[in-house]
Design goal:
- The chain has 2 domains: about 70 residues, Thrombin, subunit H; about 150 residues, Rossmann fold (3-Layer(aba) Sandwich).
- Helix content is about 20%, strand content about 30%.
- The mean pLDDT is about 90.
């Protein structure tokens, strides 16, 4: 997203501790959650330490970043694409594709930091979400709009169960599924992509990853990016 030259707000790196970066701004402090850039390095503001210094977390590796480096305040938080153009694609936290199929020409981008839905807009009715998997619907039914945790060791069938649920959501409800991999191994993400493609449900799914080889900040925020896409 372009930055208007007349409104550029620049700062200077004063401290680097792993992924935690402190930046001093002389003129104006960036807002909390604003995205800062130092070349190709992206930093998200987390806290105002002093009237002149902010502390942020890097979303990409910080190799090459040094004290005294110039940092630019983009004036906006991290944005991700939303819309039907995402279906069948694999993305990272920045909304860039990682499936070697070219970039997405999204018509709309949204901040990953959205306001919570007011309580007055919440529904008070409880409805069962039928997954089409009898073992779940009978023994551990899911509530529509709710949350569910799935725990198990490696190789016990968690991914197979998730794939079956994605397939049923497409077939039964004509819906869309968003798979967010937080801390996933690169190999596991690639295998899941191929399995969804072979099952014929990839075109009704969006996959977004903050893989285990990426920065803690990226893994921390990728869930917010996935929620933003799902809310659309």
């Amino acid at each position: 997203m372009a930055i208007r030259t007349a409104q550029i707000n620049t700062g200077t790196v004063v401290s680097i501790r792993g992924s935690v970066i402190d930046v001093r701004f002389q003129d104006k402090l960036p807002e909390i959650h604003n995205q800062l850039t130092a070349g190709s390095i992206v930093i998200e503001v987390l806290i105002h330490l002093t009237p002149e210094v902010v502390r942020g977390i890097a979303l990409v590796p910080t190799q090459g970043l040094a004290r005294g480096a110039t940092v630019i305040d983009t004036g906006h938080p991290l944005m991700v694409p939303v819309g039907e153009q995402l279906l069948g694609r694999v993305l990272n936290i920045f909304g860039s594709t990682i499936d070697n199929k070219g970039e997405i020409k999204a018509r709309q981008w949204r901040s990953i930091h959205q306001k919570s839905v007011p309580l007055s807009a919440h529904t008070t009715t409880s409805e069962i979400f039928n997954t089409g998997i009898k073992a779940i619907d009978v023994l551990a039914p899911l509530e529509r709009g709710g949350k569910a945790g799935l725990f198990g060791g490696a190789g016990v069938g968690k991914t197979v169960l998730i794939m079956e649920m994605i397939h049923n959501v497409v077939g039964r409800y004509g819906g869309v599924s968003i798979f967010c991999g937080i801390g996933e191994r690169v190999r596991e993400g690639e295998e899941l992509y191929r399995e969804l493609k072979d099952a014929g449900v990839l075109d009704k799914a969006v996959m977004i990853f903050g893989q285990m080889n990426e920065q803690p900040g990226a893994r921390f925020r990728v869930g917010h990016a996935a929620l933003t896409m799902a809310e659309y």
